[in-house]
Here is the input.
Amino acid sequence: MSNADLDRTVLVPVDAITVVNPRVRNQKVFDEITANIAELGLKRPITVAARETESVGEPTYELVCGQGRLEAFKTLGQSEIPAIIIDASSEDCLVMSLVENLARRQHRSLDLLRDIRRLKDNGYSEQEIEAKTQLSAKYVHGVIKLLESHEHRLLRAVESGKIPVSVAVDIAGADDVGVQTVLRQAYEKKLLRGGKLLAAKRLVEARQKHGKGQASADRGSRKSLSVESLLKTYENDVEKKKVLLRKAHATRSEMLFLTQSFKTLMADENFVTLLRAEGLATLPKTIADRLTRMEDA
Here is the structure.
């Protein structure tokens, strides 16, 4: 920690900090961060922005960067954490958090997609996103194109971890012949190996045969039902249940008929003698139990 940072650093209650852009963290990496902080202490303070509260009391803060360090302090049972307090709006905090996460060398593909989308939604141009994230123009353009061209099949594959976002971008920008080159290069770069390579090939074949996929498969894009379609769905469901009930009543009647028939036959001494002669004097336990219950009723 530099002297300049020490001059600007204050202790902030961990419970007063809100994470505006939460991430799902790699547990192994998080455990290493926690162990390192426990042994050596915090090397770099987190960054927060102060917020005014309506009621008189302790101030609250929004986290700009340092979620891993903050969570490590909570895990270690610390009530306060060194922080640099900056003056920034909530929107600026979100954007700075997105940029800080995008600038990392290690990030999840899904996080990368979402962060670029959120920057785009906040009004930043492709050139501004490139400058802030230090990502190449081709890469940023490819990701935005992937989102805007509704490549639902590729997006689902990225979200499920089947293919890296870089490979999805290359597939979206290639023709049918070029896609094979993309897969070969991904294999050579060790981005796709084994089962992931086979899954990527099946994905490409499905995309070529059936298109980009349906928007209804994406979360948040469910097609709303009209009153008429909802009523029709309800009527169809009621009709299915009526058919099911009719089948159940018919089956019950047949079972009662068969059980009564067995009871009548078993009361006939000549029939029972014939069964004994053929070595069939015993009945399956289920049928015998049912006959017993009928006699007891």
